[in-house]
Amino acid sequence: MRIANVDGRLTLLTRQGPVDVEEVSGGRFTSDPQAVYDVWDEFAGWAREQGDVTGVESGLDTARLGAPVPQPRQIFAIGLNYVDHVEESGNDLPSFPTVFTNFQSAITGPTGTVRLSGDSVDWEVELVVVVGRGGRDIPAAQAWQHVAGVTAGQDLSDREVQLRPPAPQFSVGKSFAGYAPIGPVVVTPDELADPDDIALGCALNGEQVQSSTTAQLVFSVPQVIEYLSAVVELYPGDLIFTGTPAGVGLGRTPPEYLRPGDVVETWVAGVGAMRHEFVGA
């Protein structure tokens, strides 16, 4: 099943075309793309009664697509979670997940322009997990049952702000307006051939700069959910940015960062692609 935010309205994608959820459900579900996660199990059951929703290509004008999860209560992000990215960062493999948070106002949709906050802004492709069933103390063996779906994300990072002394400021350095693009759609785990082995990557001005698979995660999606839920309560509609592979600008010699006019294309296999152009401050 694939759902989208089309012109600000919750939309189910079927082989018969896009379905406006509020209209077709007779008001049983609202048009708010965020609200659906609070009733995820009920919605998923209804959605599968609306025709063939498996493996659907949307065919939608991407300019009409907004962030499929526009107002999550919580946004978690995992650092140093690909072996090759740990190596390019010059760090040792972590013994437990490195966690920070982004702020909700950084969320934006899968296309458009993003204003650079300075001259040290980096790209980071990520698989983003959307929580469907919340809870605490979720065991890894049951974690995928708590996932509504996955989407593509960019964890854009102002490295100067993130790393300036006296102490790193990861959350602030990654939370400027538009610095957490997600989309183009949310795809349920049953659509994925192997939810623990999902290809992802991104290109800068047509040059591929990152390419990997979530099989290379240091901590898998289930392990991350188990770890987080042992500390905090996860809520329906929360987002988890699961980490970025090698190929970020900071890892280049010399480091390379985004400039006005640059275009970043981000993709996750089975989900789709995003495209963003960057403009000056």
From TrEMBL:
InterPro entries: FAH, Fumarylacetoacetase-like_C, Fumarylacetoacetase_C_sf. GO terms for molecular function: hydrolase activity. Residues 75-278 form the Fumarylacetoacetase-like C-terminal domain. It comes from the Bacteria. It holds the Pfam family FAA_hydrolase. The keyword Hydrolase applies. Keywords: Hydrolase, Metal-binding. PANTHER family: FUMARYLACETOACETATE HYDROLASE DOMAIN-CONTAINING PROTEIN 2A (PTHR42796:SF4), FUMARYLACETOACETATE HYDROLASE DOMAIN-CONTAINING PROTEIN 2A-RELATED (PTHR42796). Belongs to the FAH family. This is Fumarylacetoacetate hydrolase family protein.
